[in-house]
Fold:
Amino acid sequence: MKTPAIAVTGLGMITPVGNDTESTWDGVCAAVSPARTVAALEGCEIDFACMVDGIDLDATVGRRTAFRMGRYVKFAVLAAREAVADAGLDPAGWDGSRVAVVVGTSSGGSAHLTDQALVLERRGPEATSPAGVLLTIPNMPAAEIAIEMRATGPSMAPCTACSSGVTALSVARDLLATGQCDVAIAGATESTVFPIAMTGFARSGAAARADGDLSRLSRPFAADRAGLVMGEGAAVMVLERADDAEARGAEPRALLAGTGATTDAHHPTSPHPDGRIAQAAVGAALRDAGWRAEEVEHINAHGTATQRNDAAEAALISRVYPHRPPVTAPKGVLGHCMGAAGAIEAGLTILTLQRGVIPPVANLDAPAPGFDIDCVTKQPLVRPVGRAISHSFGFGGHNAVVALRRP
Structure:
């Protein structure tokens, strides 16, 4: 049976540079990182991050339900609201049994788990929150979206570390292709800016250390790249079979043409140095889409600004795409939003397809010597893009790739 075309009909985002899709796009194109010191990290080796700011999350979500939601869940709910509205859908009028929710995360509510452990130790069980379990378990973003949206179809919470967002899109695509749902709300969310997580990344050697201007610390593909800067946020998309979207008069933002996934099976944190297994994920996505590599017109790179990841990814790009399509890496602006990164970057890739604009890699003058890749720098590149790829690679060797095209 031929796999049906899958349309992205709605998009919602909340990130360190914007509390919706439009402001996020503007911030990424401006190429200035909002990294700042964070009071809650005082005394930690790493006391700065890219934070979601300028919004009262509890008031916006609704105080009657916000008390039971972790920060990462609130992000997901707000992004889902924007995505569903953007798709022109009304949960009050749909058949909820035909609506799936697939929202990934990497660390879920670990911040609340550590907070509650300290409360338990210092003040006893009576002082802990009765919503403690709900604040912690990683399926709650999908669950809370399903509750709000009256979605009683399949509900899932993929966790493939920093690839979780693309994994969620792939799972949602399969649910639609096999007829298990008619609408899928899919994406990922994350908030890992708390002391134990930041300390862990500092001790692992993956994180950048404060050195002058915080806004210039995340430098993907630069010769002097110094490690990742933490970010947070969410992106959620509404997916439908393209024929169904057309039948209801919806205009797709993009078509999800293909996905691919592999596992390095090499090391818990380091990518395979030659990038060959990640390259196989790219090949799988291209085959799924029915594309030749030379037809790809833009790459949204994983680009963490760590030494090993960027080197392996640059080598992969130069091997797979000898025609050197323009590359961007949003983590120079947003920081690394961990489990949410793949969904956010897929969303930005969709906007590039729509607008014919490729955002620049922040804090980059030119790729490091030996990196034979064409990074967009300084200013956005205005160029029509019909076919694009977004890479996501995570701890544990998880590689996930999505191919997207203009309708």
Q: What stands out?
A: The mean pLDDT is 95.
